[in-house]
Input
Amino acid sequence: MKQFKTVFSFEFKGYLKNKVFVGVTLFLVAVIAIVMFFPRITSGKTEDPGVGEAPVMLICVLPDPPDSVVTEAQADGAETLFGAEFAEYSVTRATSEEELKNLVGSGEAECGFVLHGFSSFEYYVKDLSMYDQNGMRAENVIREFSYVSALLNAGVSPENAGALVGSEIKGETVALGKDQSQNFFYTYIMIFALYMVILMYGQMVATSVASEKSSRAMELLVTSVDPVSMMFGKVLSACLAGLSQLVLIFGTAAVCYNFNSEYWQDNFIIGSIFNIPGGLLVYMFVFFILGFLIYAFMYGAMGSTVSKLEDINTAVMPVTMMFIIAFFVVMYSLTSSNPDNMILTVCSFIPFTSPMAMFTRIAMSEVPPAQIALSIFILAASVAGVGFVSARIYRVGVLMYGTRVRLPALLKNLFKG
Output
């Protein structure tokens, strides 16, 4: 245990003193903080984000067909309907289509609608946002007006026609299991974060082992320190460094979001990301740690089989490819219509895919507690087994110099001494 503590402390302090590690962490924290404060900064408001002058929306009603006449009542009705639908705008009428286009083009009005009777329209806006839904909303307004006109022509009184069309229909969707649209975004982020951290820190563990092997002092180190302590110290220190980095980054995001939550209240994606249930957060932590460890041990073992740093990418390629395949299988299932399919169910019990697969199933569907417990048990046992085997490979591999260690020679010396 003393040897493990020494190795762990030395390796972890190395990460904290690494200028690249510290610089990247601080950079990401700063970027996250800027992003979370961006709506507050761009709004130009310091207190109540709801206070401010409403943007102008213009409407211009033209006769359809052109030789007909638009009555004042029709123009007033259009203005009233658009004002009710677009309450966030100051809706007013333009005298002509040319005036409307000039005012929108100059920025005096944010947008405008030219209505050809109530059968078609043109929507004018200076810069069209990819999130602009005004055209779709206008279709609903015009459709409502058409219904009212049809009812009036059929002899229905204006009061009854308005009541029929304006009657409120209340609907509620109740998910008896999981709301996949609510859970998708933070599930995606967790899977992607695990993917990036494993690839980055796994490569760092492999590089660290290969670098030490290039020093002949490693012979003395390996013979005096238990290889299990060496391997576990290296991997667990990398795990703690990676976890600390993520906690700092996402912790900063959470704090900044809470400070600016009123500016994000209309953003469904951001809101769902920062409203993760506590139980799911615990599962995220468990599968993240175990998933990182099992791959980091394999990366460390592969790093000990090379004698030159330039051979690391070739050595770790099988581990990397296995992880990338697992990632794409999970991402395919996550974006499919049925995330809890047979492939993902099988993968949730395979230790090399279960960290991502089982977490996805827990977040996106109802999983029996017995299956969750079995998956965690298999994964934890596999982490311990892979860790001890990796320690044996590490002890044999770092003492074999020259060309890259071949599998037959490795297996021949693996369980000696």
In short: The radius of gyration is 31 Å. The chain has two domains: 56-166, 177-414. Residues 45-51 have pLDDT under 50 and may be disordered. The longest strand covers residues 56-62.
